[in-house]
Amino acid sequence: MAKATAQTTTVTTKTFTLTLSEDQAAALLTVTGSVGGSGKSARKYTSEVYYALLDAGVTEKFNKQRTGSIQFQGPFDTF
């Protein structure tokens, strides 16, 4: 006799909300906009944050003070 069972798995995604001052948001915009690397690296996520900040109306304030960048290697299996 054949027997079959079903299993349901629930995946929970955590989300986070930050409350930032205008200067803090502008600084985060500069940092996330200064990340290089493949779109299959952690840069994928920093780019998403960068564009979300732009969409929220955050403007570039500290870009002229930037002296370097952050580079991520990829690809990673988790992406």
Would you kindly provide a written description of the structure presented here, covering whatever features stand out?
The chain has 79 residues and is an alpha+beta fold. The chain is 30% helix and 8% strand. It has a domain at 22-72. It has a two-stranded parallel sheet. Helix 1 runs antiparallel to helix 2 (43-55). The longest helix has 13 residues, at 43-55. The chain starts with 21 loop residues before the first helix and ends in a 7-residue tail after the last strand. The mean pLDDT is 83.
Oligomer: single chain
Order of helices and strands: HEHE
Distance between the termini: 42 Å
**Strand order, biggest sheet?**
1-2
Which parts are unreliable, with pLDDT below 50 for 5 consecutive residues or more? none
- Please tally the β strands and state the result: 2
> How large, in whole angstroms, is the Cα Rg?
19 Å
Q: What is the count of helical runs? A: 2
Q: Helix/strand-derived class? A: alpha+beta
Task: Determine the mean pLDDT.
Answer: 83
How is the main sheet built? 2 strands, parallel
As a percent range, the share of helical residues equals 25-40%
Tertiary shape = elongated
Beta-strand percentage? 5-15%
